[in-house]
Amino acid sequence: MKTTTEIWRQLVSWVVISTTLFLVVVMPTSSMLHASAKECSFPAIFNFGDSNSDTGGLSALFGQAPSPNGITFFLSPAGRFSDGRLIIDFIANRLGLPYLSAYLDSMGSNFSHGANFATAGSTIISPNSTKSHRLSPISLNVQSKEFSDFKLRSELIRKRGGVFESLFPKNIYFSEALYTYDIGQNDLTYAYKLNMTTEQVKVYIHEAVSKFSDAIWNAYREGGRSFWIHNTGPLGCLPYMLDGFPELAAQADMFGCSKPLNEMSQYYNLKLKETITRMRKEMPKATFIYVDMYKVKYTLITHAHEYGFEQGIIACCGNGGKYNFNDAARCGATKLVDGKKVIIANSCKYPNVRIIWDGIHYTEAANHWFFKQIVNGSFSDPPIPLNMACNSHPIHH
Ligand SMILES: *[C@@H]1O[C@H](CO)[C@@H](O)[C@H](O)[C@H]1NC(C)=O
Ligand SMILES: *[C@@H]1O[C@H](CO)[C@@H](O)[C@H](O)[C@H]1NC(C)=O
Ligand SMILES: *[C@@H]1O[C@H](CO)[C@@H](O)[C@H](O)[C@H]1NC(C)=O
Ligand SMILES: *[C@@H]1O[C@H](CO)[C@@H](O)[C@H](O)[C@H]1NC(C)=O
């Protein structure tokens, strides 16, 4: 016969074992994450990055992106390198916020619900030479400085009242906002243009992710708590790289994408992910969502027909060549005919069924498809949907 103490001991150990099992087996599934998470109401978005999310920054600095950019949606270039909207536009839309004004755009901008610090051609590491490599001088460290200044001066300018109060975010928005990032592609491009060896590119990537973490720290110190971070896409599937590096293009996978270039994108993503894991420990009050854009983009490019698209890696807007990309006549390039400017690199007929827009960027149709894949969190780590990205990872609690 068992004593009461023995029964109790058995009962206690049963409870301990089953609780542990519950925590290990049941807790980490995404449905539990959702059940324990609350829906967020982000009053603003602050975005950092390159052309993947530039809504007018580079255009404000160096002249507008040319037609036919914008033909599908805005019916004018609208500062974006695409025929229409970018993923960041769909994100803003889903959160019920207006499209983001570019911080550098002094005309017609309204920053009441956020600002966009991204410019096309931006890198994480400030490049030594911008012009000869078509890079932007607004690297991520500059974007961080702009952001800090923006926060400081928003507070001062709002105090003037009147129209200024409706043009700049409230102080509280800086801690409640969603901070979004999509950068790194141009650092890889730059490294290859400098003829770095594979080992040198890897060292360069280590430096890049360390600088990336500096930028997150800056936003965190300014009050940022919710971070939504895209990794970099498959560089080896983009015409500008395939055209520019024929030896790398020759080492192709079955879809025509360059294996060494894609391996390097994945190496960057691995290091980025490790950095984010470390930042979660360093900034326990913040939420970090790592979004696997590589997987989403590679899936569409390599299964174009399955998803109703055509011509995986061939650019829609261009001027001929193997990938319809010609570096000397990029999308929107013109030449004078009888004193009139005529576009010699124009849009394909049906950009709505194409993936690559101009050899570097994606079409609105592809961007919309990408957005639909990522919005429910199925490509995120942790698998939290966009509208719940203010919740810390429950497992860390
Ligand atoms: C940029 O210039 C600095 C100083 O001249 C040099 O140390 C560094 O290696 C250069 N970086 C690249 C990527 O060329
Ligand atoms: C700025 O945008 C907000 C939100 O869309 C709007 O309420 C406000 O009136 C706008 N301000 C101006 C000056 O247009
Ligand atoms: C890289 O190599 C190419 C081909 O050899 C050469 O034309 C180019 O000038 C090199 N670039 C740099 C930055 O050294
Ligand atoms: C997320 O959305 C995509 C696209 O609509 C869908 O295929 C996928 O099954 C969804 N995943 C979850 C976990 O809901």
Task: Show the helix and strand layout.
Layout: H1 4-26, H2 30-36, E1 45-49, H3 57-62, H4 87-94, E2 114-116, H5 140-158, H6 173-176, E3 178-182, H7 185-193, H8 198-221, E4 226-230, H9 239-244, H10 246-250, H11 259-282, E5 287-291, H12 293-302, E6 334-337, E7 340-343, H13 364-374, E8 380-381
Parallel strand pairs: 1-2, 1-3, 3-4, 4-5
Antiparallel strand pairs: 5-8, 6-7
Bound molecules: 2-acetamido-2-deoxy-beta-D-glucopyranose (NAG) (4 copies).
The site of one 2-acetamido-2-deoxy-beta-D-glucopyranose has 7 residues, from loops.
Family: Belongs to the 'GDSL' lipolytic enzyme family.
InterPro entries: GDSL (IPR001087), SGNH_hydro_sf (IPR036514), SGNH_plant_lipase-like (IPR035669)
Protein name: Putative alpha-L-fucosidase
Describe this structure in words.
This protein has 397 residues and is of the alpha/beta class. It has one domain: Rossmann fold (3-Layer(aba) Sandwich), CATH 3.40.50.1110. It is built from 13 helices and 8 strands. The chain has helices at 4-26, 30-36, 57-62, 87-94, 140-158, 173-176, 185-193, 198-221, 239-244, 246-250, 259-282, 293-302, 364-374, and strands spanning 45-49, 114-116, 178-182, 226-230, 287-291, 334-337, 340-343, 380-381. The strands form 2 sheets. The chain has a 6-stranded mixed beta sheet with strand order 2-1-3-4-5-8, with helices on one face. The protein has a two-stranded antiparallel sheet with strand order 6-7. Helix 7 (185-193) runs antiparallel to helix 8 and helix 8 (198-221) packs parallel to helix 11. The chain is globular, with a radius of gyration of 23 Å. It starts with a helix and ends in a 16-residue tail after the last strand. One 2-acetamido-2-deoxy-beta-D-glucopyranose binds next to loops. Belongs to the 'GDSL' lipolytic enzyme family. Keywords: Glycoprotein, Hydrolase, Signal.
